[in-house]
Amino acid sequence: GFNKKLDYKVEKQFYFKLLFNLSQIFNGYSTLENQQTLIMEKYLIFVLIIVVSSCNSITKENRTPEAIKFEKILGKQKSKELTVLITSFEQILEENYNTHNSEEALKAYINDINKSGEFGLIYNEDKKQMSKNLRDEIWLKPDSCFIDENFIICNYSYKNISFKIRNALTDKPSQSSSISENIIFNKRGLYFYGLKKVANKDKLVADYINNLEISGVISPSILVGMLSAPKVDFSDYFIKRIIYIDIYMQNYKW
Fold first, then answer.
1. pLDDT at 52
2. Residue range 157-207, pLDDT digits in tens
3. Residue 209, CB-side half-sphere exposure with 13 Å CA sphere
4. What is each CA distance from 72 to 31, 133, 209, 221, in whole angstroms?
5. Cα-trace Rg, the chain
6. If DSSP codes are grouped into helix, strand and coil, which group holds residue 253?
7. Cα–Cα distance between 238 and 66 in angstroms, integer?
8. Could you tell me which residues come within 8 angstroms of residue 100 by beta carbon, excluding any fewer than 6 positions away?
9. Residue 245 gets which letter from DSSP?
C-alpha cells in the first residue's frame, strides 16, 4: 500500500511540474494576441482541474488497518494483483451502469441479481487474468476424482497438505466435469486466513466467514440477500472483494 501511494505521489508531482513548465512556456509568448493567450490559459486551467481531480480520486482508497493487515497476510504481490482485478471489475460495472461512482455501480449490480436471480448479467473477462498463485490461495481444484459406488471422492493438495473430500453422487459425471464441478473454497489458504483475522471488525464479513466455516461453501443467493440489506457499505474494502470473488468470479474459477 505504501509503495502504491508513493507511486501516485510521484506521478502527481510529475504532472504538476509538467503543467508548471507549460505555464512558463505560455507566459513566454508575449507577442500573442490577448484573445489567443486567454484561450491558452483557460485550456491550461481546465487540464489542471482534470489532473487534480484524478489524483484526488486515485488516493481515496479505503486503507483501513484491517485492510493493511489482510494484505500483509495474503502477501504483497497477490494483494496488488487482487486490487488490480477489483479496479478492473469496478470499471466494468461503472461502464455497464453508466456511472462514475463505483459504490452506486456495485449496489445496482447486486440489486439486479437480487431481482433477476441471474448471476451472469455481465460477461467476465478476468478469468484469464488471475494468476495461479493468487487463485490457489482462494480456491482448490481437485488433483483427481474417482467414483466409489454412490460417492465421488476427490483428492486435493495445498502446499505440503493433501486431503480427500467424499460427496454423495447425484448422477454419474465424466472425469473432466467431476473435477470442474468440485472446485472448492480453500479454507487453508491465505485469502481465507486473512479474512478470518479481520472478521471481528465487520459483521457482514463475520457472517460470511461463519457460513464458510460451517458448510465449506456459501450460496451466492444467500450472499446477494445479505448484500441487499439496508446500509451495506459498498465502499468497504472487504465487501468489494467478497462480491468479486463469490459472485462475479463464481463461474470462472478456472
1. 41
2. 999 999 999 988 776 666 556 677 788 999 999 999 999 999 988 888 999
3. 19
4. 58, 16, 19, 31
5. 24
6. coil
7. 9
8. 94
9. I
Q: Are 15 and 55 in contact (CB under 8 A)?
A: yes
| pTM for the full predicted model | 0.72
Please, are residues 161 and 44 in contact by the beta-carbon 8 Å criterion? no
Q: Using CB atoms within 10 A of its CB, is residue 58 exposed (0-12), middle (13-18) or buried (19+)? A: middle
Question: How crowded is residue 156: how many other Cβ atoms within 10 Å of its Cβ?
Answer: 20
Q: How many other CB atoms sit within 10 Å of the CB of residue 242? A: 19
Bridge partners (DSSP) listed for residue 147? 152
> Tens of pLDDT along 81-124?
999 999 999 999 999 999 999 999 999 999 999 888 877 667 65
> What is d(CA 248, CA 243) in angstroms, rounded to the nearest whole number?
6
Query: 10 Å Cβ neighbour count for 6?
Result: 10
Q: For 145-202, where are the alpha helices, taking DSSP H only?
A: 175-180, 190-198
